[in-house]
Design goal:
The protein has 138 residues and is mostly helical. Helix content is 73%, strand content 0%. The chain is built from six helices and no strands. The longest helix is centred in the middle third of the chain and has 28 residues, at 73-100. The radius of gyration is 23 Å and the shape is extended. The N and C termini lie far apart (75 Å).
């Protein structure tokens, strides 16, 4: 076999340019991917949270400035994003722990049901958080 025959791209029977959006993933896989993304989101927000805590404990003036800044819609959205990611990450992590200790059976049906429960609880949490941040008096 010559070098050209071994590395001939026409011989390869696998897709070369695959579109990841064309793959239909099961709900449990999407839940797992979203769990990783929420963890990344939480990790990336650590500097912002540390800055806010530092400003908060520096002086009474820093507290007033932080309270004023956090009353804006953009900051409320950021707070909502943080707590949504935190809630989802905790719920999905709890699901993973229950699967690891084999409290949930390792079947496709159980995985699908537990993923649906995690998403439903997250949606409920986000709705409650939205009412808390944007509804009524602050």
């Amino acid at each position: 076999m010559t070098k050209n025959q071994r590395f001939n791209p026409k011989r390869i029977n696998r897709p070369i340019n695959i579109n990841p959006f064309s793959i239909k993933l099961p709900l449990s896989a999407l839940t797992s991917i979203a769990h990783r993304l929420s963890g990344l989101c939480l990790f990336l927000m650590i500097p912002l949270i540390l800055w806010a805590l530092q400003t908060l404990i520096e002086s009474p003036k820093g507290y007033e400035q932080l309270a004023e800044a956090l009353s804006s819609t953009t900051c409320k959205m950021s707070i909502g994003l943080f707590f949504s990611a935190m809630g989802y990450h905790m719920l999905a992590g709890f699901r993973h722990i229950l699967m690891d200790i084999q409290w949930l059976p390792e079947t496709l049906k159980a995985a699908k049901i537990s993923a649906c429960v995690v998403w439903a609880a997250t949606i409920l949490l986000i709705i409650c958080l939205g009412f808390r941040l944007f509804g009524g008096t602050s």
